[in-house]
């Protein structure tokens, strides 16, 4: 079975007419008949019933039609991708991403893009969610990726699979034994938090308000601009914090940090942030496609 045979079969199956299929493919009618006969002979099935002048699909023909359509769509998609890639011989893509995205989600995807499209230079800026929105709004970046929610009428923010926030302590903390943390305990705790304007800080404050605790009354020992710094402070036993599971996966796995119960934290999407009125370049489209390949089936991103 060849792609050419499938292409001919699909045309006959759609038109239910050998001569019209031949005309649509710019082939001779005997060539079309020979291709169908070859398929039927190779697999030992009849694909069409000829009833007078009419042509009807058999059960095997109906089955092959669906498979042929899917295969031909994939071939067409592959050709489109290759054509676009060959059009990306050189250029630049300006990205701005938030901290968790930049340090944990982005690196393997950026390497995949660089390998697939080596002629495109990527200029990367890392900030918090507010900084991502500002850079895209002002045109310093074509695409932003943020873990926080972006509400700006000039921007479009499309959700993609993201991460889960975790309430954390070091193993020596009194709450590390597994008891559920109470609202009173949350209010009295010593905290290490991301800065205002970060998606992690916004999600934490929303969750703690839902638990009945005013975030303005918390004892915040450290406000730090980076999840890696907060992770180090947690390992040193300086307080509690909330971080992405991407930041602390290894420390949770080997017991250096403990996930606490008692604060309902979200599984949150990340967001692809673009300017509503600006053109999407081929480089940006290619990056998004490559970055999201397999995202639905993976908890990684």
UniProtKB/TrEMBL annotation:
<dbReference type="InterPro" id="IPR005119">
    <property type="entry name" value="LysR_subst-bd"/>
</dbReference>
<dbReference type="GO" id="GO:0000976">
    <property type="term" value="F:transcription cis-regulatory region binding"/>
</dbReference>
<dbReference type="Pfam" id="PF00126">
    <property type="entry name" value="HTH_1"/>
</dbReference>
<comment type="similarity">
    <text>Belongs to the LysR transcriptional regulatory family.</text>
</comment>
<dbReference type="Pfam" id="PF03466">
    <property type="entry name" value="LysR_substrate"/>
</dbReference>
<keyword id="KW-0804">Transcription</keyword>
<dbReference type="InterPro" id="IPR000847">
    <property type="entry name" value="LysR_HTH_N"/>
</dbReference>
<keyword id="KW-0805">Transcription regulation</keyword>
<keyword id="KW-0238">DNA-binding</keyword>
<dbReference type="InterPro" id="IPR036390">
    <property type="entry name" value="WH_DNA-bd_sf"/>
</dbReference>
<dbReference type="InterPro" id="IPR036388">
    <property type="entry name" value="WH-like_DNA-bd_sf"/>
</dbReference>
<feature type="domain" description="HTH lysR-type">
    <location>
        <begin position="1"/>
        <end position="58"/>
    </location>
</feature>
<dbReference type="GO" id="GO:0003700">
    <property type="term" value="F:DNA-binding transcription factor activity"/>
</dbReference>
<protein>
    <submittedName>
        <fullName>LysR family transcriptional regulator</fullName>
    </submittedName>
</protein>
